[in-house]
Design a protein that fits this description.
2 copies of one chain form a homodimer. Chain A is α/β, with parallel strands linked by helices. Chain A has one domain: Alpha-Beta Barrel (TIM Barrel), CATH 3.20.20. Chain A is about 40% helix and about 15% strand. In chain A, the strands form 2 sheets. In chain A, strands 1-2-3-4-5-6-7-10 form an 8-stranded parallel beta barrel, surrounded by 6 helices. In chain A, strands 8-9 form a two-stranded antiparallel sheet. In chain A, helix 1 crosses helix 11 and helix 4 packs parallel to helix 5. The longest helix of chain A has 21 residues. Chain A starts with 12 loop residues before the first strand and ends with a helix. The model of chain A has no long low-confidence stretch (mean pLDDT about 95). The interface between A and B is medium-sized, with 31 and 31 residues.
Chain lengths: ~270, ~270
């Protein structure tokens, strides 16, 4: 059995903090509450900066749910388990049911892709019971294959599902993010296969040309070529009952006011996703 | 039965013309002959500029084989079949056994990825007998998924093989290009499955950060993280008996002299591929 979401969050808009990257945390929380948003996806760095316990109280007092914490992973680094255990503890303290794992790429100078992937699987297996003990679910995120060498050796949903398969479903799930998966000929079949492994659903659109470094080129919902609504319907058909986190890394969006970016994103969500 | 290659070309270095993009065609042909290169992969635009019949004679007189012609495809454009038939005729006149097909991306403003992929499959099925009649084999090239929207909706070797499967093996094969496939968890299994569908094998290395637009960031052999020799051994184990085309789009390489770039590329080929 996968963790159950508050019924009020099913299909609802959640703002991933990186979409409004430079909006100070207390302003973001107040802005979300004002706009009727029910959930936020948080990132560890701004949470640490504001203070973990202080963030947990701020969000709780505003009546918001933390829908996920970004992120653990990066298993190619020295001693990754210590930091990942800390990330699990942070998620638990924030009341986030999901910790997103970005696996990390190849170690510097390495060409051993198979070895890197094995290391990720082994590390997740080792962390899973610790996560379960804290009521947190690890979510393996496949990132677009253009990030394979330097950020994430998990490149497709199928691969993430195969990695999760031996581990308890309540401890380990996957992230379905439209930006990373839209091109995959197997995406919809894999979503159906994923079923209650889907820990969190994230959306962004795909636009070109890609910027140098390909990190900040995600598209506002509706600006690109992704069948966003089809994806939402697919994850719901697979049994997902959680929120829809909007996570867009985009320089133009980051240049807007937080409230303005939120308003635009919510409008586009209604038009293209809900 | 797939077309058989001249035994002298098996595993041999072939220079894809775009690796030395700005080297004038007659200089490139002379430089390759001087350096003991046996094969070249040509591109339609510089061939047209120099003259089709004139290029065919130039290459033949220098004792070189044309290992492939780049490229047909772009099936989302209006009336793509006319231009692709012309590309087949050009390949035949050059004595190129293989015409590389880059399928094209989504039509402007479209989100119908499934439809675009069907159109590619239908177009190739229609062209295949015409290619066969000209002694030319169509080679479906899966491009890295980062090109899916704007250049090529065929994104994995598995997808290319499924597309080729209903069509005669002597008329339709696939391209195995390390730059596009290295990240794929199924790459080696799909190469084994491909067997005599492998029409041409191309190599480039994967390096980051990717440049703006992600077109000119391919790495010199050995500079990146691709297991190039493992790929060569895998295609040979699958039964491929043709040349190894080196196709690197890289601004630094293009800034070198043609002869210097060729010399560097041949050295790296010996070190990392052969």
């Amino acid at each position: 059995m996968s963790p159950s979401w508050d019924a009020a969050l099913a299909g609802s808009f959640s703002l991933n903090q990186w979409t409004t990257r430079y909006w100070p945390l207390p302003d973001m929380v107040a802005g979300c509450a004002d706009a009727g948003v029910r959930g936020v996806g948080l990132w560890r760095e701004p949470v640490a900066e504001y203070g973990l316990a202080r963030t947990a109280k701020l969000v709780r007092d505003a009546g918001l749910s933390v829908t996920s914490l970004c992120r653990g992973g990066f298993f190619q680094e020295a001693d990754p388990l210590t930091d990942n255990r800390r990330a699990i503890e942070e998620a638990a303290e924030l009341g986030a049911p999901v910790l997103v794992l970005v696996s990390g790429g190849l170690p510097d100078g390495s060409r051993d892709l198979d070895g890197a992937r094995e290391r990720v699987a082994d590390s997740i297996a080792e962390l899973a019971p610790y996560a379960g003990g804290h009521g947190v679910r690890l979510a393996i995120e496949p990132l677009h294959p253009m990030y394979c060498s330097d950020r994430c050796v998990v490149s497709t949903l199928g691969q993430a599902l195969d990695m999760a398969a031996p581990l308890p479903v309540e401890q380990v799930g996957v992230v379905v993010d439209t930006y990373h998966l839209w091109w995959d000929v197997d995406a919809y079949d894999d979503i159906a296969r994923a079923a209650d492994r889907i820990a969190i659903f994230q959306v962004a659109d795909w636009v070109t040309p890609l910027p140098q470094g390909v990190l900040t080129g995600r598209g506002m919902l509706g600006d690109g070529c992704v069948e966003l609504r089809r994806f939402r319907e697919a994850v719901e058909a697979a049994g997902y009952e959680g929120p829809v986190e909007v996570e867009i890394f985009n320089e133009e969006l980051w240049a807007m006011s937080g409230a303005g970016a939120l308003s635009l994103t919510m409008d586009r969500f209604t038009e293209h996703v809900a």
